[in-house]
Design brief:
By secondary structure, the protein is α+β, with helices and mostly antiparallel strands. The protein has helices spanning about 10-15, 70-80, 90-95, and strands at about 20, 25-30, 30-35, 40-45, 50-55, 85.
Length: about 120
């Protein structure tokens, strides 16, 4: 049976521990983290029995804003992963990690000081 929570932060924690957990707004299958239906992070096997956690920067600051929910999830994931593992969306698309059909932009409602 699939586990469920009302706390998105618990789903982030489960993802970082390679566990499955689901909330109304996001889910972890242990391998990937989804904000809605959009994969925003994944554990990529390194080949030596370990894995690197990649977080795709779907944020206003990253230049690829989708919506506030996705941005909030990505920010929570970025706090849990090493900085060098945060990948820009254009780079991720170039390497086939993120679908090239996904289009994002800047959130015009975010004050410039927060960008």
């Amino acid at each position: 049976m699939e586990q469920y929570t009302n706390d998105d932060k618990e789903v982030v924690k489960a993802f970082m521990e390679c566990r499955t957990l689901k909330s109304y707004r996001c889910k972890s299958d242990g391998q990937s983290f989804y904000s809605g239906e959009l994969r925003v992070a994944e554990h990529v096997p390194s080949g030596n029995g370990t894995a690197s956690t990649l977080v795709y920067d779907f944020t206003d600051r990253g230049g690829f804003f989708i919506d506030k929910q996705v941005q909030w999830h990505v920010i929570q994931l970025k706090r849990s992963a090493p900085r060098q593992n945060v990948v820009g969306i254009r780079d991720a698309q170039e390497f086939g990690l993120v679908d090239e059909a996904i289009v994002g932009g800047r959130n015009e409602h975010t004050p410039s000081q927060a960008r």
